[in-house]
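Usage

Read records sequentially. Each one opens with the input sequence:
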Amino acid sequence: MPSTFFGLTIASSGLNASQVALNTTANNIANVQTKGYSRQQANRVAGDALRTYTKYGTMGTGVTTVSIKQVRNKYYDAKYWFNQPNVGLYETRLDYLLQIENYFLDDGVSSKGFKTILNTMFNSVDSLKNQAGDANVRQQFIADAQKFATYFNSLSIGLSEVQNNANEEIKSTVQNINAIAEKIALLNKQINVIEVQGGYANELRDQRALLVDELSKIVPIEVSEEMVPNSNDPENPLGGTYYSVRVSGQLLVNTYDYYTLECVPRENRINQSDLDGLYDICWSDTGNSFNAGASHMSGTLKALFDIRDGNNNSNFGGVITDIQNGSVKIEHPNITTVAGMTMPESGLLTINGKNFRYSGFTYETDPNDPSKVVSYTFEMEDMLSGDEVNRAIGGPASIGTSIDSMGIPYYQGQLNEYLRSFCTLFNDILKKGEDLDGKKTDYYAFFTGKDEISGKEYIFDGKKTDLITGNPAAADGSGTDNYYKLTAANICVSSVCRDPRLLGATAADITGSGVDTYDLMGNLALLKNDTIIFRGATAAGFLECMIADISVDTQESEIFYENYSNVSYTIDSQRMSVSGVDEDEEALDLIKFQNAYNLSSKMISVMAQIYDRLILETGV
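and closes with the structure output:
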């Protein structure tokens, strides 16, 4: 039989339970604006019934608060984490594409770009038609041509700066991933310490989920949490959990352990116009490569690699047909013009998935079509073994990785291809001329480039195709070079033209025509709008080709970013409808638990009166 005062015990349990619920509500209200906070609720169960050994058998013992837990839906968390990498991918890509787009702006007023500079140069060409003997007109043409070269220099520098920014952001992003992994592992330990003792680490779990939210935008992740089994009592787990985070199937966090990534500077360039020392990522403990730019990856990190390394699937590739005397011959190449070459002079040649160093290369052209490259021969620093040679013959070889994205290497390659095609035609026309002293001007190229080490200018006379032994040419015509060496970064007007008298502006093969003939200038003028130079377009069509590429990528990124952001917003709204703090709902709970508390207090007051009457008036 229960105690005479058992009613007070029941009422006090209700009083305590209501007070806990009120405190929990107060905590929710206090954190209504706290980022990452999940609504908490006090979970209550009826107290164990007490046997009374009377006709009614048992009697309720009140209410017991068993836990205060966060309200969170794992399904919505998983959906949110699955979508976030796409948000990060297109948000970052869009940001960088807008930066690239700015370099190609040309409204003729505030932004004087390619069209303005090209028009100015060809206006000077028109002036030379009838005034080829005027030194001032010649000097103006040379100055405008140098502005054309300087524009591409600055464009290349700007794109290189974007590549460098992306590279540095890759490093800081990797450091952030490592920091997040360390924090999650530390939180796992703190959470388990509390929960093994019977508590529930709500706030720590919120902090961990917030870190996972941040990580999911950087790289695609998989999260799993399993209870630690109790071998002595399988029905009652120990309270701790195994919590793991995987990135692309590889463990980043394994409960209390975490694995870090490391940025390693490249020893070799992958593309001719790449900056030195771009970072690759590997796992610190094993040294295994972490391919953040792989096609199955997503997130901010992949976007950075796409911008920094994206080549629009145009990296060098071909079939190995011969290996002997330390050289590898490759036929059926996908790069069949000198203008289109993007590979560095020395670097890594990938054969059967293994990288081998090469120190240089030569190429051969089609005898029937000298403009078409049919094979390459790479001089190897790393020798292939007998088995490797046997397996390599007839197999593919490549330089770099095929990346289906228009990043900095793609745009740098497009600049170089355009300039090589344009300057080849431009120089060939002027080499047919003579200067004001009647001397032929075939000993120098008007548009040339400077070797980045020696500073000497190249001479493009078409006599050699050897990119290994060709030396930077001197201004007197000794030596020879190839247009592969000309890039947007080093293009300039030949130093010979500092003296405008040496400009070959008149036709050398027209006797008695005088210095004011405009035959050559007329041919130069045709390059602007009447000669196909680049991707089926004329010299003036270059900008349209570039803008078309950038616009397609930018519009795609804008559309996908908006779509995935909307999906993310929808999922997060669903998630917050469960775990978020609603002020109106908390206000109702406040009234509800206040009334329950008041009723329990009233119950105690009533029981006190009953016991007072019982004790004082009956003498019990």
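Summary fields computed downstream for this record:
- The longest helix spans residues 135-196.
- DSSP finds eleven helices and 20 strands in the chain.
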